[in-house]
Amino acid sequence: MDNLLDSWGLTVATFSPLVGALVMFLIPKEKEYEHKIIALITSLWVAFVGLMLLIWFDLDATEKLQYVVDKSWIDAIHSRYVVGLDGISLPLLLLTVLIVPLCIVYSWNHFPDPKNPKTFLILILVLETGMIGTFVAQDMVLFFVFFEVVLLPMFFMIAVWGGPNRKYASLKFFLYTLFGSALMLVSFLSLFFLTGAESFVFSEIADNVVANAVSRTAQLWIFGGMFLGFGIKVPMFPFHTWLPDAHTEAPTVGSVILAAVLLKLGTYGFVRIAIPLLPDAAVEWAPWIGLLAVIGIIYGAFCCLAQTDMKRLIAFSSVAHMGFVMLGISTLTDFGINAAIMGMVAHGLITGMLFFLAGSMKERYHTLEIKRLGGLLVQAPKMGWVLGFCAMASLGLPGLAGFWGEFPAILSAYNPANGLPVEIFRTFMVIAALGTVLAAGYLLWLLQRSAFGTPKEEFAEDPNIHDATKTEWVAWAPLLALILAIGIYPNLVFRATDAAVDASLTPCLTIDVDELTHEEIESVHCSEVYGLGNHDSDHHTASKG
Amino acid sequence: MSTNLLIVAFERPAIDWHAVAPEIVLLSVGVLITLLDILFLEKARPYMAALSGLGILATAIPLLTLGIDGTERVLFDGAYVVDNFSLVLKAIFLLAGYVVILLSTNYIVDGDYWESEYYGLLLASLMGMIMMASSRDLISVFVALELLSIPAYLMVAWRKRDPKSNEAGLKYYLMGVFASAVMLYGMSLLFGVSGTTVLSEIADSIDAGNGSSSVMTLGIVFVVAGFAFKVSAVPFHTWAPDVYEGAPTPVTAFLSVASKAAGFVALLALIFVGFYELSNIWEPLIWILAALSMTVGNLVALRQTNIVRLMAYSGVAQTGFMIAPLAVAGHSLSTGNQALSAIVTYLAIYAAMNLGAFAVIITLARRTGSAEIDSFSGAFHFAPGLTVAMTIFLFSLAGIPPLGGWFAKFEVFRVLATSGETWGYLLAVVAAINSVIALFYYATIARKMWADDPSEKDLNNIEVTPSLVSALAICVLVTLLFGIFPQLVARFTEVSLLAFGV
Q1: Does one domain contain both A394 and A515?
Q2: CB within 8 Å of chain A, chain B residues 417-446
Q3: Sites in chain A below the pLDDT cut of 70
Q4: What pLDDT was estimated at residue B3?
Q5: Do both A440 and A526 map to the same domain?
Q6: Rg of chain A over CA atoms, in angstroms?
Q7: ipTM
Q8: Distance from CA of residue A62 to its chain's centroid?
Q9: How far is CA A274 from the centre of its chain?
Q10: What is the residue range of A542's domain?
Q11: Residue A406 sits in the same domain as residue A545
Q12: Interchain contact B378–A (C-beta under 8 A)
């Protein structure tokens, strides 16, 4: 069992959905029930494989890549099929394999128009392959391929099953992300060339960046390209404009997957690729990333306050929340990045849940215009409570998952990594803390307007408005339970990520200047960007050579 | 007495019959078709398509044995060469030709056009392309070019009752002849300076110091411009939209894939074997052609409402991508080899995806009777399979993994970003921005087919003829396989021409 999992586990998890999709492709579309069953079984099987991977995962060595498979793929360009799982990927992989079956269950009886469950479910499964693949890929080209694979199904999901403005939104989503990833690819290739590495495998490139002393200017440009690719996906202010449109127009399940997993591909890219591979450039970019992150927090919050549509409001709250995640990442500290990964998981669970709720309310009210809603607690009390629970989780109430993403991220900005301007980051910290107040403001106001009070006249007698159904509970219960569980015991996530994050950061970022002697600091050979002594550049190159 | 002297003076050069076997087989099939047409007239008509298809398959047999044999064969003092490069391209031409015959079968019958002559001309044009792949001499390049072009002029005007087709034929002919004339003038200048027509000897002459001559520069510019016309690079692209729109659609597919590839082959042979040392002349020229073709082609494609015209402009933009690696090919030998492999890879994948897109267009147009993009709206409702196939081709053309096109684009980016030249990085950024622009119109078509309401009243599933099914199957399969296992195509396209040039 162990051996089988070691050599096949990740590959099976990645490609099983594709196999399921292929089988469904061959079955005529009239057999809707069979399609649903196949899709569900496939996604449950993938979830089961994910569970097995978790059980056999060595939690005492999360910094080590596990279940590694290294096979030749495209020899002509030195790209290999390398997959592996470490503590950074593990929580995100589990999040993915959990969300997909829940989405399939949720859509069981209410597929958005124009129905066609066959194509809809095939797209979800293809999406799953892309998402899992991105989280396990350890080769730049492989990563790029999976990173792009998710675009097509999401594009069609929005374009075909979306709301009234779906055509504009789908194309905007596609063009924005492709623009970023095209420049990201150029960055990957230049990095590969400049390092003179033998392959595109992350670890090898990282070694070669150090060994071959890629010039500072080149590193900065390359990081810039990656920044665009990942930053658009996150999305960071000012590249966020595709997100509210995509979220508002996407069908419920599309929004859930988009919020829960797709946005994390961007932040994951920073944590997995940009920062470990180009730490020197990261130090110089970090203040700017931090700045954009806090602008995103405040701007997102103000936009939320101005929204009249519930789904659009949740979408803008994603911009704010991803701002916290990016703030944690921009500190370049072990603490901050751990918080960021926690933030990703928490945001995935909570915002995914909020989108489920928005979808269910849309189905009942046929509108999400906040001023027409009201009195949800009267008409559908259980749903009202779930909405309240999620709003609390989202605003960062201690004891629920959201808190552990937001609070440590803010705290980490108090003490950023070596080489980063402390005063500036402390300013960011204060601004971000103000952002949490705004978050409480817009979420509670949303809750007040939609759940409290008495139902509006037009919906007062509407028989269509009933409490949560069985399928809805099945889809929601695991998410609600996890939000609570992680809130009470955050170590569920930190246990996996901590060592892995620490290992991914160069010692230059994390060593404590006050505790080491001058010689000890010298012996780490850090470049001058970290401000660890009076290196001049000649000395720097000499020590690397 | 004088006749006697001539007889004595002519000595037949040694011919490696194995090396020219593909050409001979194809020629025989062409001759056979013409003879059958003359002998049996109408009675032979129904068999012509099948016969020419089989002829192409038969031609593939000696190609395979040559590939297995693997030795490089040089004929006629270096004027005609059979090496891996030429074999791979011949294979691409044959496959493209075969798919075009599958596409033509019903189109030509339904339109009540001359059939036997059509296939005869198609094979003749294919013959020119196959010769082009081996030509390493100014004269054989020119002869091959005319052999592939002249039948194409006729085929473009094949819808003889439609003025648009006649206009297209005339336009293509006049522009083609003009380009040939410019090229021929350039060739005569090259011959004047170097005193030889064999490309490798021209390279020697450049080494010997003739490269600095301004006449040589002029010759290179003229020759490159002539082929820029053939591959429809901006600013020599103006014929393409009108010709593509007016020609019978299978012929358009043929021109956009095979004829373009043939232009590229000649350009590659000339640059790598002949002028490689003079990269300071052709690199900037190609850089401008590439950047212009991508940008102009894409921007104009955004405004098109007719899908064939759109494919014409998208083809111009794709040319820009294909030609781009040449802009840094002179940097070093390894970059040169990579650039060559990248272009051949692109040609192979482009052939599959572009032919596939045309196959869908032909099939859908049989139903809708129009090539307006709006007439394809909601195709998902009456032709789900075709819509999925078209989606695959369109997004492959846009370069989205895991469809074949991504690897083609990836190879281009790889060459540009790893040459270590600032100009290379710059062109890579231009290409990156252009791939986003291109996605806009490709995705718009796909979105219309999937998401819009059908304009058709008749929502019964569309009928697809068996030959179109096989054409589509071949193209989908190749596009997907090359995307998921790029090593398949990379194995064959790792070719080199530079052993000759340097």
Answers
A1: no
A2: 417-418, 420, 425, 428-429, 432-433, 435-436, 439-440, 443-444
A3: 1-2, 533-545
A4: 54
A5: no
A6: 23
A7: 0.82
A8: 20
A9: 15
A10: 511-545
A11: no
A12: no
